[in-house]
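[step 3/7] inverse_fold.run input=structure_tokens len=219
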């Protein structure tokens, strides 16, 4: 039997420090301090001033790591829930899971999302990881048109990632309120999947988009 002490020692010390720094960054964001400095972060995480730089390199890299935590949570929800239905149903479930993660701490997550658009000489991995999240939801493409299934599985993961990121950007900017986030994300997903859907599913996906346009015109 592995003791608790042995279990703790199995986690590399460097990783423990990284997680402590990320926890401290989340705490500062939770307090509404999105403009925290690396010195603030070092004090909050009880490490030397140089440690956040040594572990991450920059504040932007820390924000990318926080985004990675959110994607981890979205993946875990999707894997553990084993949603029923076909690829289209699973994409809608993945949308619900992703928006629910973002709504757990809107203040923190808006700050994280707002930082991701900053210029960087070192590309992050958010797009790659987001595309994998949607690829996992699509699976083998059951529910998509057989004639275009391979094409859809090659195109849709990145397009769904682009679409969800776009919706999040308007939510981050305050142009979508919290209640609008999930419906807007689902309508974008429906629009993207409509052209690849099995004909039996296409009508319902089209109707989702029409309802969205109708509501917008009557405002």
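[step 3/7] decode complete -> sequence:
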């Amino acid at each position: 039997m592995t003791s608790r002490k042995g279990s703790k020692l199995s986690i590399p010390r460097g990783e423990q420090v990284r997680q402590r720094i990320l926890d401290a960054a989340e705490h500062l964001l939770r307090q509404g301090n999105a403009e925290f400095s690396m010195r603030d972060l070092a004090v909050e995480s009880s490490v030397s001033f140089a440690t956040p730089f040594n572990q991450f390199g920059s504040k932007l890299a820390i924000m990318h790591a926080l985004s990675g935590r959110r994607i981890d949570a979205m993946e875990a929800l999707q894997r553990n829930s084993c949603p029923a239905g076909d690829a289209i149903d699973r994409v809608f479930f993945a949308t619900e899971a992703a928006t629910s993660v973002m709504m757990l701490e809107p203040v923190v997550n808006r700050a994280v999302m707002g930082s991701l658009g900053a210029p960087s000489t070192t590309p992050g991995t958010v797009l790659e990881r987001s595309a994998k999240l949607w690829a996992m939801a699509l699976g083998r493409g059951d529910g998509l048109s057989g004639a275009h299934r391979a094409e859809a599985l090659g195109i849709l993961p990145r397009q769904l990632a682009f679409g969800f990121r776009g919706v999040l950007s308007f939510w981050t900017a305050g142009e979508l309120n919290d209640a609008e986030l999930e419906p807007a994300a689902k309508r974008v997903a429906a629009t993207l999947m409509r052209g690849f859907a099995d004909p039996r599913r296409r009508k319902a996906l089209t109707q989702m988009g029409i309802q969205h346009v109708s509501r917008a015109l009557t405002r």
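[step 4/7] annotate
The longest helix spans residues 149-172.
Residues 72-217 form one domain.
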